[in-house]
Amino acid sequence: MTPSLPSAHDKTLYTPGPLTTSLAVKQAMLHDAGSWHWEFNALVKSIRDRIVALACLDPATGWEAILLQGSGTFGVEAVLTSVVPTTGKVLVLSNGAYGERALQMLQHHRTHHLALRTPEDTVPDLAALDATLSGDPSISHVVAIHCETTTGILNPIARIGPVVKRHNRVFIVDAMSSFGAIPIDFAASGIDYLISSANKCIEGVPGFSFVLCRRPDLEATAGSARVLSLDLLGQLRGFDKNGQFRYTPPTHSVLAFDQALRELEQEGGPSGRGARYRRNHEVLLAGMKRIGFRSYLPHPVQSYIITSFLFPPDPSFTFEDLYRRLSDKGHIIYPGKISQADTFRIGSIGRIFESDVRALLAAVADSVAEMNLHLPPVT
Ligand SMILES: *Cc1c(COP(=O)(O)O)cnc(C)c1O
Known about the structure:
By secondary structure, this protein is of the alpha/beta class. It folds into two domains: 12-18 and 268-370, Alpha-Beta Complex (Aspartate Aminotransferase, domain 1), CATH 3.90.1150.10; 23-265, Aspartate Aminotransferase, domain 2 (3-Layer(aba) Sandwich). The chain contains 13 helices and 14 strands. It has helices spanning 23-27, 38-54, 72-82, 97-108, 126-135, 157-166, 186-189, 215-219, 232-242, 251-266, 269-291, 319-328, 354-370; strands at residues 12-13, 63-69, 89-94, 112-117, 141-145, 147-148, 153-154, 170-174, 193-197, 208-214, 306-310, 331-332, 334-335, 343-347. It has a seven-stranded mixed sheet with strand order 2-10-9-8-5-3-4, sandwiched between helices. A three-stranded antiparallel sheet has the order 11-14-13, with no helix packed on it. A two-stranded parallel sheet has the order 1-12. Helix 2 (38-54) crosses helix 10, helix 5 (126-135) packs parallel to helix 6 and helix 11 (269-291) packs parallel to helix 13. The longest helix has 23 residues, at 269-291. It starts with 11 loop residues before the first strand and ends in a 9-residue tail after the last helix. The structure holds pyridoxal-5'-phosphate. Pyridoxal-5'-phosphate (PLP) binds at residues 16-17, 71-73, 98, 145, 149, 174, 176-177, 197.
């Protein structure tokens, strides 16, 4: 099948990224940009500055946004392989697949590490964190996942960070699926390194991740990087030297990101965007309950980014059947990733609005009827 040209009529993605993007974001890619040309380098510089501004950080205090080729995972791996010395030890607060992926990286790179796990529907245990840090002075860095996209649980980084800082350790936050739509107070959360990517709440397209950190902190890690292409300080020095990515930049995603940032700025930044996503989530949750689907997470820890729904108890339900019927109606949902329950996921992020969510809900109700499922509403 020939993929259709950029249009506003692709199937709508209710996924955690890549997401549905605006037509203008797609159109921004219809150019060939010279990767070393001053116009492109000026655009990269402007994007780096606007990410710092979006985070409400003061560049005068050394904050930098470092773009790095690759998906979000590459950004996390860049931080973990660049800033942790061989003598370091990393504690990962894990309650889902992305916490586990960080652990997998540390294992791969033979970096000393430790996991502090909680169940997938439970936020990290702050008392256990405090005790672990007290008991093990060799722990140098702590990693937390802000929105654990596995379930949609929102981990309280503003309460985790102060514990980490009280013990004087470096705090690394994977904010892949939250940055840009959930306001983050860097100072209150004691964040030293934050990682996000182009194709989640900023509503750009895949191609690069970015890391926010203070230049003096990163410079103090000189000599620690284990992977050349993921060397974060090397990447920053490349931008310093000539404004360029060290290796071939994802030119088209950078062009798309510029437009995506403009749309985010026009929407009122993270709080404006967060308000739209929250509305999407609330309409989704209420509608799904009426149809008979129960959400996995308890309400207080549920983010408005993505929602996990339990498979209904009706034996004739299969996810594949529902997925196919929704796809035929123009809506793409997402399989579950939870190890502890059978679920599927529906995202509230991307260029989607309440009207899209309502169209999805109508399609879910029709599909449930076609599948002959008899689901009592969830109260
Ligand atoms: C999406 C995501 C990542 C990175 O995923 P990629 O597929 O490599 O972009 C990492 N952490 C979280 C929390 C995510 O949602």
